[in-house]
Design a protein that fits this description.
single chain; alpha+beta
Length: 222
């Protein structure tokens, strides 16, 4: 009972509580380290790469010097994507928010990445004229204020898929006109979608990261 003698004089009940909370700092076993967490399971501010966050500021025309908050939770988005699929929500046109950039710490988002479960992707040449088509994922479309990426995810998390790939549509949309060139804005929109979608694919345990390369480079036009 050496451990008890090192504690201040207490009633038996208080001693038990003190030992549970603090171990009386004498000979107790060391607390286990908290379980490690994947960066993708953290908040958007921690999970998004610096290059993606910089691109979000550029397409939203937020000056580098302006304080910007990156708000959202990738794991929650992944859970909502799975829940929608399991509920038969393929074709649901409502968005599932992923990550957004905000001037300051609140208010309206300046740019937002969202995900959907579409029934299919557009065929070649069917997109609006404001978009250019690119070979990334299943299909990527990029405009100045909007970018879209279709990719397929094969994962055991989609229990009703019977191993068939599930089509996912990512969209990045900025609220304001960018001051960068149209070509630069299209590149940044695809950069944002590439990084965001790799994070989502990781959380969904998609096989081979859904065909998205480890690092982003501007894909060729389709």
């Amino acid at each position: 009972m050496v451990l008890l003698m090192k504690c201040p004089k207490m009633t038996p009940v208080l001693i038990a509580v003190a030992l549970t909370v603090a171990g009386c700092q004498g000979g107790g076993s060391k607390a286990a380290d908290p379980p490690s967490r994947s960066p993708a399971s953290e908040s958007c501010d921690r999970s998004l790469s610096s290059s993606v966050k910089a691109a979000m500021k550029r397409v939203a025309d937020i000056p580098v010097s302006v304080k910007t908050s990156f708000i959202g939770h990738p794991q929650r988005t992944a859970d909502q994507v799975v829940a929608r699929y399991e509920a038969g929500g393929v074709g649901d046109l409502s968005s599932i928010s992923f990550c957004g950039a905000y001037k300051g710490s609140s208010g309206l988002d300046s740019v937002m990445v969202s995900y959907y479960l579409p029934e299919d992707s557009p065929g070649k040449g069917q997109a609006a004229e404001t978009f250019k088509e690119y070979r990334m994922g299943k299909l990527a479309l990029a405009g100045v204020k909007v970018g879209v990426l279709y990719f397929e995810c094969t994962s055991g998390k989609f229990s009703g898929s019977s191993g068939a790939p599930v089509l996912i549509r990512g969209e990045v949309r900025s609220r304001y006109e960018a001051s960068e060139s149209a070509a630069a804005a299209r590149t940044d929109n695809l950069r944002i979608l590439h990084g965001s979608s790799r994070t989502l694919a990781s959380l969904l345990n998609c096989e081979t990261s859904s065909g998205l390369s480890d690092t982003f480079s501007m894909p060729p036009e389709a």
